[in-house]
Amino acid sequence: MFHVTTHAFFKALLFLGSGAVIHAMAHNQDMRNYGKLSKYLPITFATMFIGYLAIAGIPGLAGFFSKEAVIGAAMANKHAVTDAYNLSLFSGWVALGVAALTAMYMTRMTWLTFFGKEERWRAIAPHHAHAHHDDHHAHAHPHADHGPDTHGFFYTDEEMASQHEEHEHHHELDRDHKPHEVPPSMSVPLIVLAVLSAIGGLVLMYVWNFEKWLYPSGLPILGQVSTHPHDIPLLPLSIGAALGGILVGWFVYKSGLPKREGWDESKWHPFRKAAQQQFGYDAAVVNMGVFGGRDVATAMWRGFDVHVVDMLVNGFGWFARTCGRLVGVMQTGYIRGYALMMLAGGVGILGYLVVLMNRAH
Prior knowledge:
Elements: H1 2-24, H2 42-56, H3 62-76, E1 81-82, E2 85-86, H4 87-114, H5 131-138, H6 157-169, H7 184-207, H8 210-213, H9 234-253, H10 270-276, H11 281-330, H12 335-360
Antiparallel strand pairs: 1-2
Helix pairs in contact: 1-2, 1-3, 1-7, 2-4, 2-7, 3-4, 3-7, 4-9
């Protein structure tokens, strides 16, 4: 819970900061079009940089305290031992590697967005006005077409003109775009989350004992869980993972977007091409879940639904229809016919009674 809480601080900060960058870049979400945004977005840059350092695990920030506690608990305990293999220790080493990987790809995000030698969106040619703008101008909205608007359901002409003006002001990202800082409705939460990402871990660990606050009362617990492995130098390893990931990311992206990651996908490494396709995972899910489900449903429809369910339903319908036709033969609509059937029935009943009386004697 400690890491979940600190993680909420810097991950919310990074998500909100990403939204601020997207907002500043005309809703374009491709980092290949960014670069050198720190001078345009000083608040977003400063707050996101704190979040970047926190999630990377730099000592003193929130992520360092909670992440080291999680990794230390995995390495120092033997609550997941099977067949003489300490899976807890193995998961701790995996987590340490993932921490280094996190620091590396977050460095990539930070440098491609806020640093570099060029503003890469300056290479995008200006976009021409969309044709559908003219269509909006040509389309009138007279209230006479709708009748009297007694409930205020339809937009007024002034409201339609205002909406159209706002729509025209929105433009795609191109070389003429100038990034702008976000309004206080976004910058204030960014600052608050940045403060929590900076000191939240320290406060929760040493000022407000978060662990004791969550300690169960009167409930059985797993046992004493240590966060300090005795035979593994966790502190230097944790710091090394963070700094190592940052250095690798900085070395690769310090000059901006590498050509092997640019718009020419023919220059991409095969591993990157595979990563673009999620290593086939999404395709497998679609093939098995969507297309596979469609094939199973089609087979059930053609095999069971048509030949079993439909046959039963249609069979009952045929039986009811046949019975109705047989009974309908007697329903002629002629009164004399009904009188004749009543007479025949009465004679039959009398004959049956006579037979019973003769047998009784």
